[in-house]
Amino acid sequence: MNNKNYIFIANWKIYYSFNQALAWCKEHKQGLAELAQKNSIVLCPSYEALAPVAQLLADTPLALGAQNCSEHNMGAYTGQVAAQSLHELGVKYCIIGHHEVRTAFGDTHAQLLKKMEQLLKQKIVPIFCLGENKQDYEDNRTHEIMAQQLEPVTTLLKNHEKADLLIAYEPVWAIGTGIVANNNHISQALTFLSQALHQNLNQIRFLYGGTVTGETIKTLKEIDLISGFLIGKATTNFQELKKIVS
Ligand code: PGA
Fold this sequence. Notes:
The chain has eleven helices and eight strands. It is of the alpha/beta class. The protein has an eight-stranded parallel β-barrel, surrounded by five helices. 2-phosphoglycolic acid binds near residues 11, 175, 209, 212 and 231.
């Protein structure tokens, strides 16, 4: 185990309803505050819970994250949530291009780029997700796929050289499957990304996501290029979250 200051992003998806999310935060507030004293933890509940969770955890060092945002400023866009509103609620991070969002809404590169631009305007750090699917993994096309997926990021960096960005490598076949990618595969993927983004490495941090648990994290922490983790299911259980973070 090492003494690196990892950042832990808890992606709650819609595992909890509004009431359940608040009850969880109330129940574990003290424990969460203690964990967040020594570690960077970002809690990403679903949209409707952001405001009350922000209030509830305001006196703790926990940061708040959102799971997506609109590519639009404000206006006639039914069903969307503007980055400005996220900022007003105290959101500091926002997940962009998560595989589940890409699948549901088919975000294009142009849309992903616009979303990140909206976030940067509001001083919210984008957590850009990418990763190959099972077929591409088996066909050995991981790097080729990532090179394509990286396009919105490289375009963004042309206009925002100093943008603070988190890039989450999440192999699709490892998300919520109980199968974690092996260290060699992840290291090679992150090496590829760092070479592709070499000019901006000062402000970019790499995360890994996909079946991170209290058990699997031990081995994952051996990977040099990892600065943090994007974690789904396991973070909805406080004891498991504690195990991951400690
Ligand atoms: P998981 O999800 O930790 O449940 O595999 C990760 C993610 O979707 O970001």
